[in-house]
Amino acid sequence: MTSVTSAPVPARVVLSQADIDRALTRIAHEILEANKGSQDLVLLGIPRRGYPLAARLAEKIAATDPTVDAAAIVGQLDVTMFRDDLSHQGTRPPYPTKLPRTGIDNKVVVLIDDVLYSGRTIRAALDALVDLGRPRIVRLAVLIDRGHRELPIRADHVGKNLPTSSAEKVRVRLEETDTAPGGTPVNEVVIEGRS
Amino acid sequence: MKHLLSTEDLSLANAIRILDTAEEMAAVGDREVKKLPALRGRTVVNLFFEDSTRTRISFEAAAKRLSADVINFAAKGSSVSKGESLKDTAQTLSAMGADAVVIRHWASGAPHRLAATDWIDAAVINAGDGTHEHPTQALLDAFTMRRHWSRLAGTGSEGADLKGMRVAIAGDVLHSRVARSNVWLLRTLGAEVTLVAPPTLLPIGVEKWPCSVSYNMDETLEQGVDAVMMLRVQGERMNASFFPSTREYSRRWGFDDNRLRSLDALGMKDTIIMHPGPMNRGLEISAAAADSPRSTVLAQVRNGVSVRMAALYLLLSGDTREPAAPALAYAGTHSTKESN
């Protein structure tokens, strides 16, 4: 957790709004390509910022394939209760898990998160999925892959590979969840840290 | 929050946090695998010095749904009947590595004693102490009311309180820990509480409680209520004559068929009837009222498991701070991914 009183750290914008949009457009097409269409596709966003990303991807998929109803393929998967650091980290109230009406059995589930780092969130997500049903295939799409994996996990679709030092912080700000200090919505990816 | 001992000192933020978490826990009950791994490897001891069916089973179900190990301890058939003290029992449990103790005791204040001393280093949850408090019951009542209240308002219950809700708590207030816990919690959540009871069944000092008091059931109903909570007449604690006869009690203070009809006559179609159980059918609540669509008795039992899961989760998953910091990060605009 960041301390409120820390001095301003040098922040560098690595993805602008347009960059994020282009990356998501590409990922949407990659997902369709890898799946050979929109058959059985379910996009599950991991709170908080994975969910708005999943919704945006679904919009883009629906724009390419008119048979797809964007709202019907998006869901949210909370992993709080499945984390392996629950006993060290402060508790946070779990977010709702919302699955598409069709469920996830025999579906192609694409997990979506903003930043892939240690891989522990994704491990928790895989555990959470097992309790909800049995997808045919599980894939992973992330906006940023910043390296420093601690588990044998990789992403199938990556918006941007971002080599970072572990002292740096990668912040994804999306207009659905974040506002700039002035109160205006932002869409950007920023690196902060002692580089 | 380290312990959950009473609702009197529970802050609004913490109360809402427990209710919101319970809302997510309730969703687990609808899933195919009704289990979460959150408390794997933790041990929860149910320490019951007094008889209980639903509270103990509810806590046991809650702990098991969170994958904790549960040890049930009933005073009957244990060393307590050989004269072992609370201190020795607690230290024994501590030596066995209990992470949480759910305690029900006939003595008011026993859970506070356990929490305040160094006998045991575990989270203490009060599951009813004497005639003092029963916080998880009040929380599950509030959870049930909040769902009802926000459904009427047509909004989601997440983050909501009970502002403006009129609640009547009727019956044996004198012996009822449920009434006490509810009065404090409902005040914190912004509801207006009226206690309805014969003067003999009201405790000394009730005028200082944050609620109004009425001696007349029908008058209270006529003034309009959104929820009526009937309390059990606690026969086992009736060591003096508090009312002349059960028949008179049922006529004047019970929720009988006439009062059920009067709710319709008064046009209160959304008023719910609550009871913490176990019910004395025909005494404080008639069978028709208990089984009517207004009755939330079974919903209360169902919600009890969710609320107790929330309490166990919040107390046991490593957080001992006040919610200010995590709550800010939760709602904040600049939370990071460094722990990812």
Descriptive terms for the model:
heterodimer; A: 195 residues; alpha/beta; Rossmann fold; five-stranded parallel sheet; 4 helices; 8 strands; 24% strand; globular; B: alpha/beta; 2 domains; four-stranded parallel sheet; 9 strands; 39% helix; disordered C terminus
What can you see in these coordinates?
The complex is a heterodimer of chains A (195) and B (340). Chain A is of the alpha/beta class and 195 residues long. Chain A is 26% helix and 24% strand. Chain A has 4 helices and 8 strands, in the order βαβααββαββββ. Chain A has helices spanning 17-35, 50-64, 70-73, 120-132; strands spanning 11-15, 41-45, 74-76, 108-116, 137-145, 157-161, 169-173, 188-192. Chain A is globular, with a radius of gyration of 17 Å. By secondary structure, chain B is α/β, with parallel strands linked by helices. Chain B is built from 12 helices and 9 strands. Chain B has helices spanning 12-28, 54-65, 86-95, 110-116, 135-153, 177-189, 217-222, 246-252, 257-265, 287-290, 297-316, 324-331, and strands at 43-48, 69-74, 100-105, 123-129, 166-170, 192-196, 212-214, 227-230, 272-274. A 5-stranded parallel β-sheet of chain B has the order 7-6-5-8-9. A 4-stranded parallel β-sheet of chain B has the order 2-1-3-4, sandwiched between helices. In chain B, strand 3 (100-105), helix 4 and strand 4 form a beta-alpha-beta unit. The longest helix of chain B has 20 residues, at 297-316. At the A-B interface, strand 4, helix 4 and strand 7 of A face helix 1 and helix 12 of B.
